[in-house]
Automatic annotation (TrEMBL):
<dbReference type="InterPro" id="IPR006656">
    <property type="entry name" value="Mopterin_OxRdtase"/>
</dbReference>
<keyword id="KW-0408">Iron</keyword>
<keyword id="KW-0411">Iron-sulfur</keyword>
<dbReference type="InterPro" id="IPR006478">
    <property type="entry name" value="Formate_DH_asu"/>
</dbReference>
<dbReference type="InterPro" id="IPR006657">
    <property type="entry name" value="MoPterin_dinucl-bd_dom"/>
</dbReference>
<keyword id="KW-0560">Oxidoreductase</keyword>
<dbReference type="GO" id="GO:0022904">
    <property type="term" value="P:respiratory electron transport chain"/>
</dbReference>
<dbReference type="Pfam" id="PF04879">
    <property type="entry name" value="Molybdop_Fe4S4"/>
</dbReference>
<protein>
    <submittedName>
        <fullName>Formate dehydrogenase major subunit</fullName>
        <ecNumber>1.17.1.9</ecNumber>
    </submittedName>
</protein>
<dbReference type="InterPro" id="IPR009010">
    <property type="entry name" value="Asp_de-COase-like_dom_sf"/>
</dbReference>
<dbReference type="InterPro" id="IPR006655">
    <property type="entry name" value="Mopterin_OxRdtase_prok_CS"/>
</dbReference>
<dbReference type="GO" id="GO:0046872">
    <property type="term" value="F:metal ion binding"/>
</dbReference>
<dbReference type="GO" id="GO:0043546">
    <property type="term" value="F:molybdopterin cofactor binding"/>
</dbReference>
<dbReference type="InterPro" id="IPR006963">
    <property type="entry name" value="Mopterin_OxRdtase_4Fe-4S_dom"/>
</dbReference>
<dbReference type="Pfam" id="PF01568">
    <property type="entry name" value="Molydop_binding"/>
</dbReference>
<dbReference type="GO" id="GO:0051539">
    <property type="term" value="F:4 iron, 4 sulfur cluster binding"/>
</dbReference>
<keyword id="KW-0479">Metal-binding</keyword>
Length: 681
């Protein structure tokens, strides 16, 4: 048994708590730091600086070690008994007065499959499907588009085979900084070996530096580029005729849909040279194998789902799927964002991507669980926040930090005060400050369970020490919540027992066992009777058994914000040294030393026009809010576009972003906001 609340750590082979790469990570007793073990992904034990510093936050000054409840407007410490009573009483009253749909649950892509599975089961037993996770803010549109055309929204290929590509087509993703170990160890090796890379991105970043070709698209204008590439390919008859005939549907309609596309016009609209588009089209069409990658630059738009459809069309047109070194590859965000959705922390699907709307599925779950899950899909994350005070009266936020990460922060901060708010977290986060009850949970090194990484591999995270003070295992907290709120029998003997139940209700996990994962991994889909999980999807037929996949007819629609004369387009994102809301990385001294504060990246021409110099402080504002920030003048950002991260509480960039939601996936448009920038006095 791992020890002590005095913080001593027992080294065990665990998995990094940051990104979806899923590097093997353990504790080095000699120097007190994180160190890689030769894991399934980081086979040489390599880590990025975040992984290496992952132990530092465990004992941060504001680590919450006792439950807290709000008394007369102030948060005060309480016993577990008092805190859980408070939750059960208030949630109980809400259910009685307004019905179970008045409760909303944010599950967590930072936490284990078992924790997420149990929370969604409890929410459904209480009687609501309003349970979501931050995939909604992230790859929801990717998952929707891939689901529609390919039947499943996960990476089609694996890190091990991607290197066989002749061309990497990277759209709106920056893997050199956001997925550094995959980039350096897998993609980088291929690039050094002759694979070419086309990078479609408004910002020159570390990925662009290694690209053969940069298409510097204006944020929100990817469809003009991708549709024009398809047009060039069809016009010059460069498409894969055999694949199109045998494995796709609707080619004629697609060709007709593109009839009006004028490559030069589209290029101008997207702010890129026409030649650039033609050259990119040739590279993609003439290569034997192309692996495509899609990231937040594509997904986080008002029409993010359409963006991804446009990319999948190119993949189908050139027959680049179902083989090593090809496919549609969304590199997933958090350590367990793939898993959170796989296990049903979603308003529309039950574990294993089984639809809540399908009566047969619900009947199966009724047999397994002893109750029928509700049929009506629940609210998505931003919808649920905005419904606070109306349809939603109680919110349970498990390991998310919406006060920093949801768009249009001023509105979200009001929302968070409108509901009875329960926060289960590690630290006094910006969201926890609004809580009515805080339940102190366990960090990655203090728990057992499984995470599912970006290429569908389940790996085990191991307990190396006990949670500090009165903090408890997250799984135990959720179980206790479930016992208070429902008559479910919740008497699992640890994570493995929860996993066994999860596997028994998810056909895609049928062959996976906790022991089978061991110190290695198992990949889904792993069907009953199979010897292992499926590595490359869609080989002879598409997932689910379809022989063909359809083209999708999409065209450009303007982003939500209109950009007025004199305004700039703000696009937001990440840097290598920090992680999401910064809840973990801002509590990590090593990372704060590497990048202590945010800057606004601005093109020299835009700076000069406004009399701004490198290092000046500026006010960035629009109708939603304003922030003050230091400027970094750099030609790496496209003219007319400015860039900031969302890793800091101040400046809080989401005060500026809009809550336009993609009509299909309900993802917000983090990547395009109109702003004015002026020098502060
Ligand atoms: N270091 C680090 N790593 C992380 C994270 C982190 O916070 N820090 N977060 C994790 C998470 S949750 C996620 S989801 C992933 C995300 O990983 P990525 O998908 O790489 O995410 P971003 O850096 O937000 O955006 C990618 C790129 O999109 C570009 N972009 C912006 N607007 C547009 C546009 O309209 N079109 C195109 N084509 N490109 C555009 C940006 O310039 C940026 O280079 O990273 C994960 N890994
Ligand atoms: N402007 C802008 N905003 C964005 C984005 C963008 O590109 N631009 N990207 C969006 C994307 S892709 C994402 S994924 C979201 C992320 O949005 P969030 O999920 O809200 O962000 P995180 O910082 O990952 O929040 C994780 C929270 O969980 C807590 N935590 C971590 N591990 C544990 C644990 O083991 N147990 C418990 N109990 N708590 C834990 C942390 O302290 C933290 O408060 O942000 C979105 N917001
Ligand atoms: S690449 Fe991702 S999983 Fe690997 S060490 Fe860095 S943050 Fe952790
Ligand atoms: Mo994400």
């Amino acid at each position: 048994m791992a020890t002590s609340s005095d913080g001593e750590l027992e080294p065990k082979k665990s998995i990094c708590p940051f990104c979806g790469v899923g590097c093997g990570l353990t504790y080095n007793e000699d120097n007190g730091k994180g160190t890689g073990w030769e894991g399934p992904v980081n086979t040489r034990g390599e880590l990025c600086p975040k992984g290496a510093a992952a132990f530092e936050m465990l004992d941060a000054d504001d680590r919450i070690t006792q439950p807290m409840v709000r008394e007369n407007g102030h948060l005060v410490t309480a016993s577990w008994e008092e805190a859980m009573d408070r939750v059960a009483e208030n949630f109980g009253e809400i259910v009685e007065e307004h019905g179970p749909e008045a409760l909303g649950f944010f599950a967590s892509s930072n936490c284990t499959n078992e924790e997420n599975y149990l929370l969604q089961k409890i929410a459904r037993k209480i009687g609501t499907n309003t349970i979501d996770n931050c995939a909604r803010l992230c790859h929801a549109s990717t998952v929707a588009a891939m689901g529609k055309q390919l039947n499943v929204g996960a990476m089609t290929n694996t890190t091990d085979d991607l290197g066989e590509a002749d061309v990497f087509l990277v759209c709106g993703a920056n893997p050199a900084e956001q997925h550094p170990v995959i980039f350096n160890s897998y993609l980088g090796a291929a690039l050094r070996d002759g694979t070419e890379m086309v990078h479609i991105d408004p910002r020159e970043n570390q990925t662009t530096q290694q690209a053969d070709m940069h298409v510097g698209v204006t944020p929100g204008y990817d469809i003009p580029v991708l549709n024009a590439m398809a047009k060039v390919i069809i016009e010059e008859e460069l498409h894969d005729e055999e694949f199109v005939a045998e494995r796709t549907e609707g080619f004629e309609a697609f060709e007709e849909h593109l009839a009006d596309v004028d490559v030069a016009e589209n290029a101008e609209l997207a702010g890129v040279p026409e030649e650039n588009i033609r050259e990119a089209a040739h590279k993609v069409a003439e290569a034997d194998r192309v692996a495509s990658f899609t990231g937040m630059g594509m997904s986080q738009h008002k029409y993010g789902t359409d963006n991804v459809h446009a990319l999948i069309n190119l993949v189908l047109l050139t027959g680049n799927i179902g083989k090593p070194g090809t496919g549609v590859n969304p590199l997933r965000g958090q350590n367990n964002v793939q898993g959170a959705a796989d296990v049903g922390a979603s308003p529309s699907s039950l574990p294993g991507y089984q639809s809540v709307e399908d009566p047969e599925v619900r009947a199966d779950f009724e047999e397994a669980w002893g109750f029928e899950p509700p049929a009506e899909p629940g609210l998505t994350e931003v919808e649920a926040s905005h419904a606070a005070g109306d349809e939603i009266q109680g919110l349970y936020v498990f390991a998310e930090n919406p006060a920093i990460t949801e768009p249009h922060s001023d509105r979200i901060h009001e929302d968070l005060q409108e509901a009875f708010l329960v926060v289960q977290d590690l630290f006094m986060t910006e969201t926890a400050e609004y809580a009515d009850v805080i339940l102190p949970g366990s960090a990655w090194a203090e728990k057992e369970g499984t995470y599912t990484n970006t290429d569908r591999r389940l790996q085990r995270v191991r307990q190396m020490r006990s949670p500090p003070g009165d903090a408890k295992s997250d799984l135990e907290i959720i179980a206790e919540f479930g016992r208070r709120m429902t008559d479910l029998e919740i008497d699992y003997d640890g994570a493995e027992a929860v996993f066994d139940e999860l596997a028994s209700v998810s056909p895609i996990y049928a062959g996976i066992t906790y022991d089978g994962i061991g110190e290695s991994y198992q990949r889904w889909p792993f069907y009953e009777g199979a010897e292992s999980g499926v590595d490359i999807l869609h080989e002879d037929e598409f997932y689910g058994g379809e022989k063909t996949a359809p083209f999708a007819l999409v065209e450009h629609i303007d982003p939500g914000d209109e950009v007025e004369e004199g305004e700039l387009v703000l696009t937001t994102g990440r840097v290598m040294q920090h992680f999401n809301s910064g809840a973990l990385s801002r509590r990590t001294e090593t990372l704060m030393r590497m990048r202590g504060e945010d800057v606004l990246e601005m093109h020299p021409t835009d700076a000069e026009e406004r009399g701004i110099e490198d290092g000046d402080w500026v006010r960035v504002e629009n109708e939603r809010g304003e922030v003050e920030v230091e400027v970094a003048v750099t030609p790496a950002i496209a003219e007319g576009t400015v860039f900031m991260t969302f890793h800091y509480a101040d400046p809080l960039v989401n005060r500026l972003t809009g809550d336009y939601l993609d009509p299909v996936a309900k993802i917000p448009e983090y990547k395009h906001s109109a702003v004015s920038v002026s020098k502060t006095e």
